[in-house]
Design brief:
Elements (H helix, E strand, L loop, with lengths): L2 H20 L11 H33 L5 H21 L19 H29 L4 H31 L4 H10 L3 H13 L6 H24 L6 H21 L1
């Protein structure tokens, strides 16, 4: 299989998991409880933190050092650029987080339902980039199958946390008055940016191979911005926020085990 096919397959899996999560709208008359929502958000945050470290930052440092340069420069520089990129999107793209009254980003007259979809679509972008870059890195190292299994581990981890993420989009849309079918479609399509950005990243990585460490750490910075700005705060809203903390720990543990055991 070509790197492009691997990336398309990996991000296609994460998209499928988002779609399966969105399908829960057909089985629940009401949205998930606040307690379960905090666990889901915390779990997603834990997965993304572990993936940023083991699947992106550490490989970025190793790649830079193997090329004869200091590993911390592209790791720190790319990380900062990734944070800046998501910060810019956060300011420019109008969006509304589930449970919030007021939208963020540029002023718009778009419906609340559209803004809810934009909110999740925003942080699916770095996830697609991360999976695509992992497969691109494996391809650049030729026959090092361990890198492909590491990329697969990342795709599996992102896919697992995308399941509750898809539900977290579709169920609030249903509560806003949208039909089940339309809420499902919107929830599913919120994950469509992952295969798009995953494939685009692979295409781009082939032409700028020397900048691979920067791109890996860029994706890590973008993911960490999402975790700190959105997921962890939302996982600790209301009473009994310790369930959100436990969700973070569980997500981190599972992603760490996947990456270390397979990578």
């Amino acid at each position: 299989m070509t790197p492009l096919a691997w990336a398309a397959g990996g991000t296609g899996f994460t998209f499928l998991m988002t779609t399966l999560g969105a399908a829960l709208v057909f089985f629940f008359k009401r949205g998930v409880s606040a307690w379960a929502q905090r666990i889901f958000l915390g779990f997603a945050a834990g997965v993304m933190v572990a993936a940023s470290v083991w699947s992106l930052l550490i490989p970025a440092i190793e790649e830079a050092e193997a090329a004869g340069g200091p590993g911390w420069i592209p790791a720190a520089g790319g990380f900062a650029l990734g944070v800046g990129f998501l910060l810019l999107l956060d300011q420019v793209l109008p969006h509304l987080h589930p449970g919030s009254r007021d939208p963020e980003g540029a002023h718009t007259d778009l419906k609340r339902t559209t803004l809810l979809v934009f909110a999740v679509t925003l942080h699916n972008i770095p996830e697609g980039m991360a999976v695509g870059l992992s497969f691109a890195l494996a391809a650049q190292h030729g026959e090092e199958a361990v890198l492909y299994t590491s990329a697969l581990a990342l795709a599996i981890g992102i896919g697992i946390q995308n399941f509750p993420e898809g539900a977290a989009v579709a169920l609030p849309l249903r509560q806003e008055g949208m039909s089940r079918t339309k809420a499902f479609l919107c929830g599913s399509l919120s994950g469509a940016v992952e295969p798009i950005f995953g494939v685009l990243t692979v295409l781009l990585a082939g032409s700028i191979q020397p900048f691979m460490p920067w791109m890996l750490s860029f994706a890590a910075g973008a993911m960490m911005y999402v975790v700190v700005e959105e997921l962890i705060p939302e996982a600790h809203l209301g009473e009994h926020s310790n369930v959100g903390t436990l969700g973070v720990m569980a997500g981190f543990l599972i992603m760490m085990v996947l990456d270390v055991a397979l990578g």
